[in-house]
Amino acid sequence: MSTSRKNQIFIGTFIHSTTLTTLEYLHNTAIAVSASTGKIIAIEPECDLHKAKTILVPKLGWDSGPTSVEILSTQKDYQFFFPGFIDTHLHASQYPNVGIFGNSTLLDWLNTYTFPLEASLSDISKAKRVYSRVIKKTLSHGTTTAAYYATIDVTATNLLAELCLERGQRALIGRVCMDQLGPEYYLDESPEESLSKTKECVDFIREKKQDLVRPVITPRFAPACSFDLLKKLGDLAKETDLPIQTHISENKNEILLVKELFPMEKTGAKDDSYASVYDAAGLLTEKMILAHGVHLTEFEADLIAERKSKVSHCPCSNSAITSGAAKVRWLLGKGIVVGLGTDMSGGYSPSVLEAARHAVLVSRHVAMGGDDEVAKLSVEEVLYLGTKGGAGVVGLEGTVGGFEVGMEWDAQLIGLGRVEDGGEEEEGEDGGNVDVFGWESWQEKIAKWVYNGDDRNTKKVWVRGRLVHERK
Ligand SMILES: O=c1[nH]c(=O)c2nc[nH]c2[nH]1
């Protein structure tokens, strides 16, 4: 996919979240994107192709020749631009295992399926095959930003960063730190080694002198790290101001293990909760991305809110490996910033849209479980979590996740299937599972997309103005 050096104008319908519960629909609108920065520099209402060429281009001071400005205009009532999705939690290294988890639960799933696959990616040609594919696949589903876990291997982790840069996907790249619990063949030898290998990856990414791909400190989860390692990573986070990602309170046996491994005498914490272990190690900061949080206690949720740590909700994974139903409304009510994660391959799908629809359904199970109707999430809310919420989780609020002047053009063009009078789909338009008859409101079209859409609806994807996926 080529890097566009041209200024760009997009014309059509733009849909994005303005608040948790509100989608804004901007019809007959033009958005201008600067070639040099990839940022939105103008949003022009009531604008068609003619007005864009004759009024907007001169107003922006752009040369109107075709070598300077590229215009994409779609006035079809079944196509719209939407912000790129933000996947706040996924394991690039586990991609070959999507859908393979049997009836396992977290701790046996890790030993049976996950550690052997991750260890095998020290074979760099295998890592290249897997990582190239996961980037291509997630881009094809509209994921413009991904918070990736790689493996413990430095070379393979650095390769993931390079491939993201090459393909143009915005990413956080984490070398996995683990010095206990894993099999002998897949462990850091000591906290010191874990720290120095992490620093190698951080330096490698920083030397690239760009900010599309950033390093993230990644203690796998408390049970896989000695407290010494957790503290060292907490100190590194403080020194470097880098983001951190880990798992928390996903599975009941995991929580029991944390209590066993981290008694208060060892951590110096005032209690033996999972969140307090991270807090005692200096990891519970506003840059921390906590995946899952299914079984958090009131005390822990309050602590997370106080520390301004973020939560990645991973409903597909939580259902697939039988972890439980996270109470997202409750977390949001505490003021915690929440985004969506596919959590491949605990999660079975590379699609944030799938995570969004699963988030809706899981919230209904929370409601049915007695938490009352308020627990139910709407289509609008899960789309917020997949875009603006996600941006807040990965530290990119105000940069991506919406259509505002100054934000970067991380976007997707969505096309639904338009059914003609004869009952056939409009020629040349593959709407996948989504049939639009023409009488639906825009709210209804969006709901149809959320419940039935997939990558067949993701026609084009841009990151920072660069076209990074086009569906042929
Ligand atoms: O869903 C998960 N995936 C993982 O790889 C993992 N490691 C620890 N805890 C985990 N949970």
Plain-language structure description:
The structure is a single chain. The chain is α/β, with parallel strands linked by helices. Helix 4 (154-167) links the parallel strand 7 (143-149) and strand 8 (170-174). The chain has two domains: 7-83 and 403-470, Urease, subunit C, domain 1; 85-393, TIM Barrel, CATH 3.20.20. The protein has 15 helices and 20 strands. It starts with 6 loop residues before the first strand and ends with a strand. It has helices spanning 49-59, 106-120, 124-140, 154-167, 191-206, 227-240, 252-261, 264-267, 274-280, 298-307, 315-320, 328-333, 352-371, 379-393, 442-452; strands at 7-19, 22-33, 40-44, 69-73, 79-83, 85-91, 143-149, 170-174, 176-177, 213-215, 218-219, 244-248, 288-292, 310-313, 338-340, 411-415, 417-418, 435-436, 458-463, 466-470. It is globular, with a radius of gyration of 22 Å. Bound molecules: xanthine. The site of xanthine (XAN) has 11 residues, from helix 2. Xanthine is lined by residues 91, 106, 110, 114, 220-221, 247, 250, 317, 343, 346. One of its GO terms (biological process) is guanine metabolic process. One of its GO terms (molecular function) is zinc ion binding.
